[in-house]
Amino acid sequence: MKKTNCDVAVIGAGPAGLAAAISAYENGARDVILIERDKYLGGILQQCIHNGFGIHVLGEDKTGPEYAEHFIQQVEKLPINCLTETMVLDLSENLTIQASSKQGILHIQPKAVVLAMGCRERTRGAIALPGKRPAGIMTAGTAQRFINCEGYLPGKKILILGSGDIGMIMARRLHLEGAQVQAVVEIMDCIGGLSRNLVQCLQDFDIPLYLRHIITDIRGDKRVEGVDFAPLGDEGQPQLDKKISLDCDTLLLSVGLIPENELSKKAGIQLDKITGGPIVDKNFHTSVPGIFAAGNVAQVFDLVDHVSICGMQAGKSAAEYARGELEHFSESLSKVKAGPGVGTVLPQVLSGPADGPLKFYLRARQVTRKALLQLRNSQNEVVFKKKFRTVRPAEMISVTADNLDCSANEYTFELIGEDNG
User: Fold this and answer.
1) Per-residue pLDDT for 418 more than 80?
2) Residue 101 CB partners (closer than 8 Å, separation 6+)
3) pLDDT grade, residue 329 (50/70/90)?
4) Domain 123-253, CATH among 3.40.50.1260, 3.50.50.60, 1.10.10.10, 3.40.50.300
5) Cβ(17)–Cβ(43) under 8 Å?
6) DSSP 8-state secondary structure symbol assigned to residue 382
7) Angle between helices 165-176 and 140-148 (to 10 degrees)
8) What does pTM read for this prediction?
9) Per the count of CB atoms within 10 A, which of 33, 75, 306, 385 is most buried?
10) What share of the chain is helix, strand, coil (3-state, %, to 5)?
11) Confidence band of 129 (pLDDT split at 50, 70, 90)
């Protein structure tokens, strides 16, 4: 059993973890450990061979592996201790990390921890999908790894449930590889991913999209043979008389992402009931002193660039805490809530002093046109507002507010507009 002390330990070497480790070192943490369960650094970026990464952070349009390589090269230039093929088994409230590696069980005692484990896909069990359980049903991310990393085509005739970004991107990818993509089926009345992916991945390739439809049956014994789905009526019930049956040998699920927070629970971190990630302050400090959370482990983001930006801030904050220059937030400080029209908000706690602009990430509850975003304080005064032509649940809203009182106040974001008054 090996014991190691360090200034900052970062768990996860995806976009958030890489950025956090670099930022921690650049802000004075000279003993940084980066822990990754996979064989290589980069996380999920290594299987995302499409472009769209780095536009905000690097000012360039890169693929996932190219974007990852930019940060990996920075890590390799710094004396950051990278522990690959190392699985973190436990994280305690006193920041003790227990991990398993080829060298055996490791005990790491950092002064600060950054959680950067990312998120995981919802599976069939999470959505109670009806029908039989044949082979050929998998998440879109699994199919992405098969085709982009393993060189294996998961099927020849594909149906995709859910219009999340991974699902739409895989529709295009499979089409380009010669598979027949029968359709994308979505239960909501709007897509679950970015508008650009609707155009570039579905419309440009004439791939059918069925909104407000639900799968009613999966056919096949040993292998998927077909899927039945039907439109939803006004009361949300499937209209079986309008059922559509399509033959396919593979069903991909793109039905949402969940922050990976088993370690957060073990450490006793308070989680947000809506986002599923830790409640954090402006420094990405969680409810447990010395533990920070960044990227998709805190809230599922739409763009990887924002994940990296949050990682940079969390790494900086962790380094400051390790030096004794950053205090943990108090329960009496200001809370930030999601009000009418707003689904989620990050950060959920303000910690003072408010020595500069505060950045917030939000998601709209529904598609709203001519939208007005407002922030109200405890006295119901509007202290910030911004107009948007259209806001959508799948596309995050990023705003910066000035002159907020971080002491014993409560703030509420609200969205009003043409569609919701």
Assistant:
1) no
2) 83, 85, 86, 87
3) confident
4) 3.50.50.60
5) yes
6) E
7) 40
8) 0.92
9) 33
10) 25, 35, 40
11) confident
Structure tokens that stand for 379 in this block: 């006295």
Amino acid 22 reads I
- Helices 64-77 and 15-26 cross at an angle (nearest 10°) of 30
**Cα–Cα dist 60/116, whole Å:** 24
For residue range 16-69, what is the model confidence (pLDDT) as tens digits?
999 999 999 999 999 999 999 999 999 999 999 999 999 999 999 999 999 999
Confidence at residue 126, expressed as pLDDT on a 0 to 100 scale? 80
Query: Do 315 and 27 touch, CB atoms closer than 8 A?
Result: yes
Question: In the chain, where are the structural domains located?
Answer: 2-120+257-328, 123-253, 336-416
Determine the average pLDDT of the residues in 287-314.
Answer: 95
Q: At which residue do the structure tokens 């994280």 appear? A: 91
Whether the predicted pLDDT of 166 surpasses 70: yes
Sole residue written with tokens 């780095």: 54
Average pLDDT value for residue range 360-387:
93
Pair type for strands 410-416 and 368-376: antiparallel
Question: How far is residue 152's CA from residue 148's CA, in Å, rounded to a whole number?
Answer: 8
CA–CA dist 119, 271 (Å, integer): 14
Residue 263 has pLDDT above 80, yes or no: yes
What is the pLDDT at residue 421?
43
Beta-carbon count within 10 A of 76 CB: 10
Query: What is the pLDDT averaged over residues 224-239?
Result: 93
Q: Tokens in use for 317?
A: 């904050």
Residue 23 in tokens: 């930022």
**According to CATH, what is the number of the domain 2-120+257-328?**
3.50.50.60
User: pLDDT (tens digit, 9 = 90+) per residue, 232-241?
Assistant: 998 889 999 9
The torsion defined by the Cα of 54, 58, 62 and 66, in degrees rounded to 10, comes to -100
Between the alpha carbon of residue 76 and those of residues 22, 34, 79, 205, 294, the distances in Å are: 10, 11, 7, 40, 21
CA–chain centroid gap for 92, Å, is 24
Residue 282's SS3 state is coil
Cα 245 from Cα 213, distance rounded (Å): 12
Contact of 294 with 116, CB cutoff 8 Å: yes
